[in-house]
Model the fold of this input.
Amino acid sequence: EISENAFKLCIEKSSERVSFFKEDLIKLDKKFDIVLCIDVFEHIENYIGFLRALREKGKIKIFHIPLDLSFNSLIRGGLMKSREELGHLHHFTPDTALATLSDCGYEIIDTMYTPHFDFPPKSLKNRIARLPRKILYSISAKLMSTVLGGTSMMVLAK
Done:
């Protein structure tokens, strides 16, 4: 973890079996059973190099990847908003996220979508967008992500 505030929250959850580090995992001379990479590589300039280096750091990796790239984000300028407000340098669809991991040598074991509409809406606009997202998600999470956006993907990989 690189955020001081997030690290303070994490460290309270440490145990003999779960460790947290406030340093560059790639530079550590350690290997782990499980490595969590939660909302990380979309912020990293050389994300391909990072993912290739991370592959050797653990047996199992769990990724959580924002799926910012959608039809909706393209026509409404959402990519620049995620870049400016969240620091996302790279944007993914379900297919490009999985292809990136595969291209970096990961074996995908399982995936699942994590919709953002499960959180309480922050504005009227979010409340209005929630219904079509829920309906389309019930038909196809991938389609909802690709057309309307508003979801991330959890990936279990070796």
Observations:
- Residues 65 and 77 are 20 Å apart (CA to CA).
